[in-house]
Amino acid sequence: MAGTYWSTRRDDSSHAKAEQLTANVVIRPDGNGQIVGTVSGMQLRFAEVERWVYREVGSAFVGTLVFRRGEGSEGTYAFMANFPPWAMERMPWHASATLHLGLLAASLTTALVVVAGWAGPGVRGLMGRRSGTVSRSPR
Question: Which end of the chain, C or N, has fewer beta carbons within 10 A?
Answer without folding.
Answer: C
